[in-house]
């Protein structure tokens, strides 16, 4: 009888371990590997503005840039869109999760219309860049630092650089803020970025599957560490912002149900530099610009002008 109980307990534990292992690899495939996703927060319907701006981007004068990723031998690509009138002011724009530089067309046009040069990369594992996993901003932060250095090398030491990021791109620029950046980087605008990857995925795990944070977040993080070289816990905007010295504008929609709006307050509070907070009523995830394009453009451009020079 005792032997049967032991066998039964061991069998249950083995089944539990197999289920957790399977769930961990599934979550990696679902969230980290660059496959087709439902975890995007993006609307299936493309706004009319975006369609028009993508056509504009396809036809505008631009340079195609490439570089190697930081720490790995991946080919990364970017578009450099020069201002109509020669300028030393450049905004580097970082796109969102499972997106690409073309999907940032409206933001590229916003800054271009304001007289800025714009550098728009494709993150590793996305767009036309090489790679088979999503860096969630953590791996990408070092790639983007390399992009800023390439920008200075190509266009001159007199560059004045602003960083702009949307969603995961917002986390990317916030995670950059805690690193040693070129002195030419003057300001950051983040729109709907998350506090850290662990909390974001735990939130999505509950929202989409009604599952608790543990043990899957920890075990999936182990898989991600093995396969992609980073853990969920280290990919943390809040920790990086505590070292930030740059002026930063924090933007978030109060109806965001993909990256909960509560996260912007933690990010804002953590930032050690000069900072502004703008929460847009009625805006969902990555919808702040579309909610009031004129006001959004005015606010963002003014912040960049104030810190990069008008």
Automatic annotation (TrEMBL):
Keyword Hydrolase annotated: yes
GO MF terms, alphabetically ordered: hydrolase activity
Pfam entry (one): Hydrolase_4
Protein name: Alpha/beta hydrolase
Matching PANTHER family: ALPHA/BETA-HYDROLASE, ALPHA_BETA HYDROLASE FOLD-1 DOMAIN-CONTAINING PROTEIN
InterPro entries to which the protein is assigned, alphabetical: AB_hydrolase_fold, DNA-binding_regulatory, Hydrolase_4
Keyword Hydrolase listed: yes
Positions of the Serine aminopeptidase S33 domain: 87-189
Record's keyword terms, sorted: Hydrolase
